Amino acid sequence: MLKWILKCVPQTALAGLIALLLAPGAAMANAGLGHALPGQMGLQEAASPIAHELHSFYNLTNTIIIAIAVFVLILLLYVMFRFNDRRNPTPSTTTHHTLLEVAWTVIPILILVVIAIPSFKLLMNQFTYPKPDLTIKAVGNAWFWEHEYPDYGNFTITSNVLTDEEVAAREQKGIPTPRLLSVDNEIVVPVNKVVHVLVTSNDVIHNWTIPSFASKTDAVPGRITATWFLAESEGMFYGQCSELCGLNHAFMPIAVRVVSESVFNEWAGAMQAKDKKKAREILDKVALEQAGHKTVADSSSSQAR
Ligand SMILES: [Cu+2]
Predict the structure, then answer these.
(1) Handedness of CA 160, 165, 170, 176 (dihedral sign)
(2) Which of 162, 239, 275, 286 could form a disulfide with 254 if both were Cys (CB 3.0 to 4.6 A apart)?
(3) How far is the CA of 110 from the centre of ligand 1 (A)?
């Protein structure tokens, strides 16, 4: 029987089905906070209330999809097995079955309602902006991002992707630096605070995205779009431009460093005073702490070993 099933069902479809069934578990085992990992399945780990809600919606719809796919597959196999020419030479001539016809109309409607309710709720929560603790203006450029902090004298952070040499140099210092996601100047936000991001563009349409925050909005020239997030834990969170914008689309990542409120104030103070060296030192120190090193000396000794 199993051999027969394997012959009937294309193997790729079966592999896909198994992968889908295993997806939630695999995502739990592999997910890295802040960025995707090689071979990871499922969504990037959630770090904001909206992202958690999005994950449960994803799990709900996936469960329904898999259940329907399995049900239809079993029905098809049953029909092929039970009602083929050999086993059922004289087919029934039944054409209507009222109860069955009502059922296959009403049940799909109910399934769609079950999907629609949390879907609209999520959509509403994504676009109902709580009162902001911090506002950042993100401006897309071909091909880098600029972030302005209007609450702190409008200083600007320009983020350019790091070259492989720069990535290696930072890794040497003990700072985890994922390739093609890391930038020279990350933006910084305080943990557990509502951050509004006003997004626009200087040239073509880009898209400002941080998957772990479930934040994603197009950057449209001449318009301002908005997204919001509340980061639940400290660390570095990465995203990439998600609207095909041209030649270097793949090389304009976004990096958000989430820190404690006191560190944020210290950093914002340094940026406001145009002391970029001090601001960098604060961030490098936090980066090492968040990477699990207690002090800078600790990181250099672990490198020496
Ligand atoms: Cu792009």
Answers:
(1) positive
(2) 239
(3) 39
Same domain, 47 and 178: no
Per the structure, the count of domains in the chain is 2
| CATH number, position 252 | 2.60.40.420
For residue 305, tell me if it sits in a domain. no
Whether 215 and 286 share a structural domain: yes
Distance 255 CA to ligand 1 centre (A): 15
Tens-level pLDDT at each residue, the chain (305 residues): 445 444 544 444 444 555 455 554 444 433 457 898 888 888 999 999 999 999 999 999 999 999 999 999 999 999 999 999 999 999 888 889 999 999 999 999 999 999 999 999 999 999 999 999 999 999 999 999 999 999 999 999 999 999 999 999 999 988 889 999 999 999 999 999 999 999 999 999 999 999 999 999 999 999 999 999 999 999 999 999 999 999 999 999 999 999 999 999 999 999 999 999 999 999 999 999 988 865 555 554 444 43
Taking the centre of ligand 1 as the mean of its atom positions, its distance from the CA of residue 254, in whole angstroms, is 11
CA 305 to mean position of chain CA atoms: 35
Name the nearest CA neighbour of 283 among 189, 218, 213: 189
Question: Separation of 295 CA from ligand 1 center, angstroms?
Answer: 37
257 is a domain residue: yes
Asked if residue 148 belongs to a domain, the reply is: yes
Same domain for 248 and 279, yes or no, is yes
Domain that holds residue 269: 134-293
43 vs 29: CA distance, rounded Å: 12
Q: Ligand 1 centre and the CA of 34: distance in Å?
A: 20
